[in-house]
## 1
Amino acid sequence: MSLALARKYRPRRFADVAVQTHVATTLRSAIEHDRVAQAYLFCGPRGTGKTTLARVLAMALNCEKRRKDREPCGKCLSCERIWAGSTSLDVVEIDAASNRGVDDARDLRERAMYAPTGDDRYKVYIIDEAHMLTKEAWNALLKIIEEPPPRVVFVFATTEPQRIANAAAPIFSRVQRFDLRRMSPADVRERLAIVLESEKVTAEPEALAMLARAADGSMRDALSLTDQVLSLGTGAVTEALVRETLGLVHDDEILALLSIVAERRAADVFTEVARLADQGADFALMLAGVTDALRGELAIALGGTVSDLSERTRKALVEAKGRFSPGDVLRMLNMAVELEPHFKRSGQQQLLFETLLVRFALLDRTMDLEAVLRGLPTGGHDSGGPIAPSRERAEPPGSSAESPSQRAIPPAPEAKPASKPASKPASKPASKPASKPASTPASTPASKRARPPESAAGSGSDRPRLRDSGRVSEAVTPAPIADAPIVPLAAQPLDINRLAARWDDVVEAVRLAGRGVVASSLAESTPTAVSNGVVTVQVASETLASAIDNGTDAVLAALRTLFTGVQQVVTARPEGVPAAPMKRMTETEVIANRVATLRKGAPLLDAAFDALDLRLID
Ligand SMILES: [Zn+2]
């Protein structure tokens, strides 16, 4: 196999174009019925086949052996040259990243004025990375697109149509736009299997699934990765080889981490993560692995299936079914997903990963709350309707002697209808965290809202007021009503475990207070100690430290809405921030290769991505 797979299997006919069949069919039919547009815009993520489709279109328009169905023959000299991207008088490929200026556009315009080399041929201009063209360049092009010479077709390809809309909105009314679909792992896997079968290479299904996941929607990447695996020379695509090539973490490591979380062995997180760091683990891949496993965990808990998981992982998760409630898995997934954007850019991936796992391990479990609620009577005398807080149901008159823990109530949103009479709390700072569930339910778990014992003890007196104001004379006293629903939901005595478990809420409260920078800095940091009301926040960099130091007023205010006894907040930069292991991780070959591939041959694009922090990874 001397020819790289990605090249060898690049489609030569519309029928071979994987996934984008809607576009391929439309284009073929347009040629068949002589309704070819003057300009096309192909939008879609990288690796979805924009350039390939453009070339197949050019081949079909210029094929020397015109077939009735207007598929290109793929073999004639014209087809061969266009397919290979070699120079051709009639088909010109332009990389807008390096030819983005008005002069280039004028040049293009002049060249387009010349007729194609033969009466039955078309001139096709394929402009890649079209979003890189300047506004002036678009203006120069617009004229020719508005009144194009006969048999000239422009194909613009872009990953970012929005940028074209910003620079040259009128172009959109002059082009026929196609949005190319991102390939799913299943699409990629399917196509890989076909390719390897025709190469007579045996492949383990799990190996294909891993390659497909790593390719992240790009068939080209999937085939290049497969080439890398095959270059190891064993002639087969096995799970072990793929893992070695991609530097993937073994599933068992991920499963071991989830067990630590499930068993709440928070302290073991540190040793385990340190061990993985010693082995040169790539924490971005670890995070992806944990997220995938959690998705599997959720699907299995809900009785569904996940096709992306390895058989081993799936079996292990099925065996462990029930250790997390679906609600908890959702919360963990949410935390992992929220972390992801920071994670990729962070130089402190080990710390962030470690912190995430510790937070998982310290999560208040929904299960616990559910267990408590199950033990409660479900009063049939309840008049509160389906959303009545169970606290009401749970407290028939005269039951005030029950233990504080039995007073745990469901999430705030359910409790709200009952507290309607008290409109005042909405304006209090303490109500901010409580308002969060409305927008991000998954991040504010039900169990966090369980009433702490000390406040529950005081809630005995407000109970009848909430439900039946006629029963107790206190009902007419307005002041306590206002405070009652808020205080119990909020302030708990400050404690490191509670603080760690509610760190998200602290971050959110700071964000809601309009201190976005402070909030995101907190999100990347970890509370590590509480002593005499002094909260120590471990930060990963000076930047984070100073952001938090400058926002201590906001942090304190947020902390005080959630905890009692907060005195001070200090930041601590860990001694010897582990620079060495970090370095090793970020230099993982796979990542480096991938980035290099992504940016290959487009220095301007490369610079633009850096400067604008664009969605390259996506
Ligand atoms: Zn041909």
## 2
Amino acid sequence: MTTPRPVSPQDRARLDAMKKSWEQRRQIKERLDKIKHKIAVYSGKGGVGKTTVAVNMAVMLAQQHHRVGILDADIDCPNVVRALKIDQRARLENGTFYPAERWGVQVMSTAFFQEKEDEAIIFRGPMIHNTLLQFLQMTDWGDLDYLVTDMSPGTSDSALTIMQTLPVDGFVVVTSPQELAMVDALRSINMIKKLNMRILGVVENFSGDFFGTGGGEALAKKAEVPYLGKLEMRKDYRDDSKPTVLASKSVHKDYEALVAKVKDLLAVPAAT
Ligand SMILES: Nc1ncnc2c1ncn2[C@@H]1O[C@H](COP(=O)(O)OP(=O)(O)OP(=O)(O)O)[C@@H](O)[C@H]1O
Ligand SMILES: [Mg+2]
């Protein structure tokens, strides 16, 4: 019988890194398995209203008595905390993050760990990736009905990590009616399709006289995905004392319709 060769320190380090990564994946799965529906709000283009849509959808779902969480996956420019006007912070205790809560929504964001809100978070891709993995691994969301993820714009680091790590049931793609936004939204749709994930549909934000209307529906048709409707451009969003669904009847109505469509789609299993 031959005696096994001793494992070199380099190979030992490789094995340890592999074990750590498996353990991290296992813990992420365990945490996320407790959540019934995972939705992500996404668009390649910045400023089209991803955070607004994610926050108002989450608050609307909470108003309908669901248990809801929102993950701010915009690691370097986190806006969810401000959009929800949260004054408490998430806690880190014995290796577990406990989300903060506001308007009935559990919230996790890098903004909680900044000394000052306007401090620049300058992370290279691997740091963004690691931060997201740690959030997913260490956050105790409890048993949620919905986790809504607010994604950052673009089709690289953060988006890729979310798509490869978080088993999202479906993406809500936000576009504004202008052509440039639609081009970027189409890029996002193609990325989601490439990674074999489900697109719940396209919602047109900033719809109305100023930027026009109909671009979202045209995009949905072109990409052969459902059209989720339009969210009018409204002055009501200027009142940032609370999420607009709670401050404006018209916006409440817009989101009631959007959430109803998303729920209907989630009730139908994804075509394989
Ligand atoms: N339908 C709307 N009508 C009027 N203002 C809106 C509407 N939707 C969003 N806004 C405003 O537009 C601004 C940008 O929205 P938001 O931050 O949600 O975009 P974003 O896509 O998340 O941006 P980023 O790519 O930087 O993350 C915010 O001030 C928001 O209040
Ligand atoms: Mg945003």
